[in-house]
Amino acid sequence: MAAGATKAKVEAFGRPPAMLALLKSPSGTIGLILVAMLVIVAILAPFIAPFDPLRMASGPRLQPPSTAHIFGTDDFGRDVFSRIVFGARLTLQIGTIAVGISLTAGLLIGLVAGYGGGWVERILMRLVDVLFSFTEIVIALACLAIFGIGLTNAMIAIGIASIPFYARVTHSIVLVEKNKPYFEAAVSAGAGHVRLLFHHLLPNVLPTLIVVGTLGVSTAVLAAAGLSFLGLGAQPPAPEWGFMLSSSRDLISRAPWMMIFPGLAIMVTVLGFNLLGDGIREVLDPRQRSR
Amino acid sequence: MLRYLLKRILAALVTIWITTIAVTLLIHAVPGDPVRIMYAKFQSTPEQIEEIRQRLGLDQPIWVQYWRYMERLFEGDLGRSIVGDQPVLDILLTRFPPTVALAATSLAIAVIIGMTLGFLAAYRRGTLVDMGAMVVAIVGVSMPHFWLGLLLLFFFALELGWLPVAGSDWRSLILPALTLGLANAAVLARLTRSAMIDIFDQDFVRTAHAKGLPKTLVLYRHALRSGLVPVVAMLGLQFAYLMGGAIVVENVFAWNGVGRLAIEAVFARDYPLIQGFILFFATVVVVVSVIIDVLYAVVDPRIRYS
């Protein structure tokens, strides 16, 4: 009994803050550093980039990496390094907007389905299942076919494409929360629908969903780069990494640096979010730690 | 088992049915006049536009349009493409075999490399082999398909000249299949590893070791067999993911499959073709996942009786 109480106390007071726990896992630490680097580069872009990312003839065309242009120049004489630095801004913007859309809509659908139950739940979750089997890229393509191509539409399309995923996650959390004593107490105390949904369920669903959303950024960044690579997203002269890769295609053998650095930038960003996600998962689920 | 089978098939049919509705509604969700958008580059007169609208049935109430769409669908008619004016089904069927070849080859590459890597990592958990395999896997998961494709293209086609840059024969299949296969191998390696670790910790594996059975026998007969069950279950999702990746990879290597067709259709705003593609793609993914689920139920009796 006494031992149990002490243990509870230690758990309540002695548990390291989440951030510290995250830093204990190597993948979490590396992920955090990579994501922090991306954010810093995006914020300080004008100070880090030596050239205007859109200015043509910042140097001679198709220059290999040198001290003046560390990542070389492209076919318009633009500085590849400066374009990548400014691309970080676009990438963060894409990630947050796309995840924001899918998270908000998915949260609402999942909450309503899980809370409502009955036929509301059956219809909504059936629709979610159907959308799920379309795969995200096909939903995104359908959206682009409707709205037309472009970076803004691509962000929206990716946001819409991931709604089923967030709806499923929310739905499964709500099902668990609904059976907890606090919720049953609120129901028997006569709380109304709005109060139950937004005062009781939402605050308990949100933390997990924010974690899932952080991981979702990597998927969104990959998808947006893919659409831009296909020519459906960012349009010239945007310094978007996927678009930069696509314009390097015809010049791969003459100017491989145009292909290597934007790809590396996408990979490091996605890797950062993936590692951060792995780290967060380890903190949340200690069973995974020994693996 | 029969009950389970019927339930899965029914669910699949509902999915396909909802897809037909979604596909019919798609053209009405377009802001502005879809006919004008589709025929923008043909410089048609207003009379011609009206004629096309009537021919496509877009002047009818939406439920009439849906009814006609379903009628034609049952006759195997998916409409005609705007660009090239050919039956949509014919186009899809001629572009499908290359995609099947790509998907099947990549899936084989992904399964062989991914499962071996995941199995080795789990077996040698905590060693350098495990760490190395998992570093490779997480880098692989984070690598954009199209970048991996360009890198392979650069080294093997342009620098070394071993393989063609593009084409339609089996030698041209190697690079796209390798790209898609390696990308999916990374995902499978992570899945296999965690599934196998769960199994290695189970009592029946420990007992088998304790009984003094030969190591290889325990590995293959006890651990591998049950470890693969959850991995097979994930193959359905994996296949959908792979098909999505195929759309991008086909475009990197100018591989003439349905994925490349889809992008061409979106660019040209060829709505009949886009509608046909979505229905076709969803049907393929749904049918394959039903097959995988049924195979899974055959392997694991707990599924069909629950």
Summarize the structure.
The complex is a heterodimer of chains A (291) and B (306). Helices cover 74% and strands 0% of the residues of chain A.
Explain this structure.
The complex is a heterodimer of chains A (about 290) and B (about 300). Chain A has 13 helices and no strands. With about 290 residues, chain A is mostly helical. In chain A, α5 crosses α9. Chain A starts with a helix and ends in a 7-residue tail after the last helix. The N terminus of chain A is likely disordered. With about 300 residues, chain B is mainly α. In chain B, α7 packs across α10. The mean pLDDT of chain B is about 85. Chains A and B meet through α6, α7, α11, α12 and α13 of A and α1, α6, α7, α10 and α11 of B.
Features:
heterodimer; A: 291 residues; mainly alpha; elongated; disordered N terminus; B: 306 residues; 13 helices
Backbone CA Rg of chain A: 23 Å
Approximate helicity band of chain B: over 70%
Please indicate the percent range of residues of chain A in DSSP E strands (runs of 2 or more). under 5%
Low-confidence stretches of chain B: none
Number of distinct beta strands of chain B: 0
Q: How many strand segments of chain A?
A: 0
Oligomerization status of the protein chains: heterodimer
Radius of gyration of chain B: 24 Å
Largest interface chains and counts: A-B, 46 and 49 residues
Task: State the share of residues found in helices of chain A, binned by percent.
Answer: over 70%
Protein structure class of chain B: mainly alpha
Report mean pLDDT of chain A, rounded to a whole number: 86
Structural class of chain A: mainly alpha
Layout: helices, strands, pairs:
The complex is a heterodimer of chains A (291) and B (306).
Chain A: H1 2-14, H2 18-24, H3 26-43, H4 45-48, H5 80-116, H6 118-134, H7 136-147, H8 151-161, H9 163-178, H10 181-188, H11 193-229, H12 241-248, H13 257-284
Helix pairs in contact in A: 2-13, 3-5, 3-13, 5-6, 5-8, 5-9, 5-11, 5-13, 6-9, 7-8, 8-11, 9-11, 11-12, 11-13, 12-13
Chain B: H1 2-29, H2 34-38, H3 46-56, H4 62-74, H5 88-123, H6 128-142, H7 145-159, H8 170-200, H9 203-210, H10 215-252, H11 258-268, H12 271-299, H13 301-305
Helix pairs in contact in B: 1-4, 1-12, 5-6, 5-8, 5-10, 6-8, 7-8, 7-10, 8-10, 9-10, 10-11, 10-12, 11-12
